[in-house]
Design brief:
The complex is a heterodimer of chains A (268) and B (291). Chain A has 268 residues and is mainly alpha-helical. Chain B is an all-alpha fold and 291 residues long. The chains are: A mainly alpha (268), B mainly alpha (291). At the A-B interface, helix 1, helix 3, helix 4, helix 5 and helix 6 of A face helix 1, helix 3, helix 4, helix 5 and helix 6 of B. Chain B: This is ABC transporter permease.
Chain lengths: 268, 291
Amino acid sequence: MGGKRAAKLFVALHLVCVLVPLAVVAVWAFTSSWPWPELLPQTFSDRGIVELFVTSRDLGEVLAVSVGISLAVAALSTVVAAMAARALVSYRFFGKELFRFSTVLPFLIPATVFAMGVQVVFIHAGLANTVFGVVLAHTIVALPYAITIMSEVTAAAGEKLEQQARVSGAGPVRALFEVQIPLLLPGLLSAASLSYITSFSQYFLTLLVGGGTVKTFALVMFPYLASGDRTIASAYGVLFMAVTLGVFFLFELLLKRFASAKTEYFTD
Amino acid sequence: MSLRGRKIKGALAPYALIAPTVVLVLVFIYGVVNGVLQGFGIMPFLGKTEFTLQYYLEAFGRADFTASLGFSLYISAVSSALAVVGGIVLSAALTRLSASRALQAVGISIPLMTAHTLVVLFVVSLFAGTGLVPRALYALGLIDGIGAFPSVVGDPSGWGIVLVYLWKEIPFVAFCTIAIMANVSDRYGEAALTLGASALRSFFSVTLPLCKGALVKAFLIVFAFSFGSYEVPFLLGPTLPKAIPVLAYLEFQNPDILNRSYAMAINGIMVLICTVLAIVYFIVLQRERRR
């Protein structure tokens, strides 16, 4: 079988490229001195961690606000996208192609342009510097990803089982919650997970819409990345990865749990 | 409910389903258009309502703008082309190995989850003057000293910026194609092989054409993203030329409010370029659906 060795080599190389930087940053977070040209750090310290959790007192609040905003964005964009996907997959309606085109726009027109343009509008609407404004802006940016995923999953799932349930006497609400949603669950979770990530790492949009009043983790972390203090920057980096990975595994766990329950249900 | 009532309800259902998306997309378009209008000098909140092309002309007359536009287009073209090539190889390699979910999580999901700003930190930790790579090269005797490695921050070639985008977007392109590739390999892979086609040939004649649409879409997304993103070129880019979004934000922040119009003219040019990309994306999407 040709190419297997090359494939192995490439994947191994790729994994090194992904994991080595993570490891280096994790080491830097606990390093106090690493003079040139040493290959290993010379002394370690907890300065980065102390700075993170003690000196910057509002870290807990920042994290809570960030995770809260991103979870809200994940929920909102997934539900909205699932509805849009259903319309795109199962219905014919006037203006459908125009609608489809418009959902693609936030993919391709940069968030920076949107952010600078919408700032005045949000100020006049009283949405600037509010958590709600940030959630709204993030949801707009996350939506195209969620709609793409949901359209694929909705088309793949079809409506047969839902219709069968209806014919067998289930009401529309029951058919939706007991048949269609479990069927779409893997898609719903991956749309939510991608929306969460998109929101959690948003810097520029949060800066302009939140005006520095709504402090998210990506916002607080940024000045440290621009400064030269690598220990503190790395400590922030490690915490960012820990929080994101934590949420990712939560989604994976949910998927495993409910997806396995689903397959028992629907295999015939 | 009467038959007629049900029919009306059925006709209204799709509009009810798309309503929330329409509202969100309208906010997006309103924001973008509002910005673009400011570029034409229309700023009602300042009492200015007269249409002018002055700021656009000013933009194209300024050497720093044209240099920035060239720089951004170059960074995006290089990053997205290399990301597509790398993404194809990664996706094919993972498919070839029937990679487990865990392997895919590390190879694809972790890069997808990592913020671009963090990837900047990765690249700096590895490649800056005192980073790990120059240290290793020095230890191997390949470079002379601390300044001998080309600078990753502020270099006019922007190689640090490209590296950040590749770290993020190669896995993104793989993410966009891996489901199709796995599907193809399940369905046709065996057949092609038993019919005597070499693995490489069946890849180029069967798998790749089937991925074409997904690849064009991924290319456009990566291009538009790297073209319009602020953080990475702000942190790693050269002082001159600045990337377009960095230049636009600099003018946007200028206390002289007239510079805001200039910033918005720059944004308007970005919108124009990206709208072309969006139309191409949509055409590809339509073709895929017809198949």
